[in-house]
Write a structure and sequence with these properties.
- By secondary structure, the chain is mainly α.
- The chain folds into two domains: about 35 residues; about 60 residues, Methane Monooxygenase Hydroxylase, Chain G, domain 1 (Up-down Bundle), CATH 1.20.58.
- About 65% of the residues lie in helices and about 0% in strands.
- The protein contains five helices and no strands.
- The N and C termini lie far apart (about 60 Å).
């Protein structure tokens, strides 16, 4: 390991330790110094200035969760294409074939989810 490389690791460790200390200390300091004057009005849930008629915890459609999971799934898979695109000039024909296989698998998954009706809201 070169001397400059060890200095970089030490700097990274110091920055990480400092970030952990600050991230731990600030909420604690805020709870000590922050005002504490709760009232019934402050503890109520806020709904556009209208007095709530019922609890905010009501039934939520499963479709929201399914849509969020599908978005994350396809979004994360597409993120894997960025390193491939960055190194496209240095790769050969095999890497292009691999990317096409990856996109084909992604398209098959997308079509399967679409066929199952996961993108339809009015069911």
């Amino acid at each position: 390991m070169e001397p400059n490389e060890s200095i970089a690791w030490v700097a990274l460790g110091v920055a990480g330790a400092l970030a952990l200390i600050i991230a731990s200390a600030l909420p604690f300091i805020s709870s000590l110094l922050g005002p504490r004057r709760p009232s019934d009005v402050k503890l109520q849930s806020y709904e556009c200035g209208i007095t709530p008629e019922q609890e905010a915890m009501g039934p939520v459609s499963v479709r929201f969760g399914v849509t969020a999971m599908l978005f994350l799934l396809f979004d994360i898979e597409v993120v894997f294409l960025y390193p491939w695109a960055a190194a496209f000039g240095r790769m050969g024909l095999f890497a292009v074939f691999e990317a096409l296989v990856f996109l084909a698998i992604l398209a098959v998954g997308y079509l399967w989810v679409w066929k199952r009706g996961a993108f339809e809201w009015d069911k």
